Amino acid sequence: MIRAVSDPPPRALVTGASSGIGAALARELATRGHPLVLVARRGDALERLAAELPTPTDVVVADLATEEGLRTVEDLITDTADPVRLLVNNAATGAFARLTEQDAATLDATVHVNVLAPLRLSRAALRRMDGRGGIMMISSPVAVGTVGLTAYAASKAFLDALGRGLVAEAPAGVRITTVAPGYTRTEFHDRLGEDVSGIPDRWWLTPEDVARTALDAHARGEQRVEPGRPSTAQRAVQKARRLTRPVTARLRRRGTSGSA
Fold this sequence. Notes:
Pfam families: adh_short. This is SDR family oxidoreductase. Keywords: Oxidoreductase. Belongs to the short-chain dehydrogenases/reductases (SDR) family. The chain has a seven-stranded parallel sheet with strand order 3-2-1-4-6-7-8, with helices on both faces. Strands 5-9 form a two-stranded antiparallel ribbon. The protein has a single domain, classed as Rossmann fold (3-Layer(aba) Sandwich), CATH 3.40.50. About 40% of the residues are buried. It has helices at about 20-30, 45-50, 65-80, 105-125, 150-170, 190, 205-220, 230-245, 245-250; strands spanning about 10-15, 35-40, 55-60, 85-90, 95, 135-140, 175-180, 225, 255-260. It is of the alpha/beta class and about 260 residues long. Mean pLDDT is about 85; it is low at about 245-260.
């Protein structure tokens, strides 16, 4: 009797892998046997993470807010002899402040990291995916629009649209999954400068929760997953918090920006 031999887990590239959800995804992917490419600005954090992972891991220090950094990762995906067959567009940046209070550099970085990088990296990866592979977009429930996060929310709405479009365009056998996790305990809220002290403990997810749920959904071929999807009551509270609470009362540091 001849037994079928399954393909080994494909090489995966995770952007924004130095902390939070990105680092949790890297750990979970490694546990599942995927060789990895980890991308972020903080090389020291990437090296520490790579040292603890049980699978072959390459570290790429790149700032996706710059053309040089984006081109570095784009070229790696395009030129490597060992194709990236799972791309995780996780890196994100932004600021918690009214649009008129954000400087041009912050807005440019938000567009470069959250919009342009996923667009170009997805294009590069899809060109190497001949009937197998996948792309994951890490979006957010705030994509519906949130006072104080207008630019960030708009960039996440772009990711939602990109994911839907690629579902229709991707070759057969290539899976596209958009992940919109609820409140997740990472340092990202602090980097944004957003006060989340009023969010009940029971609403929070861990990065590990998000990583497992996202990768399980992707393995099943689901096109969208919302870890920690809020109940009707939670959505009502969140909407009121977004639209009625003064932005200035939720700011810890005016003009602060965050990146993952």
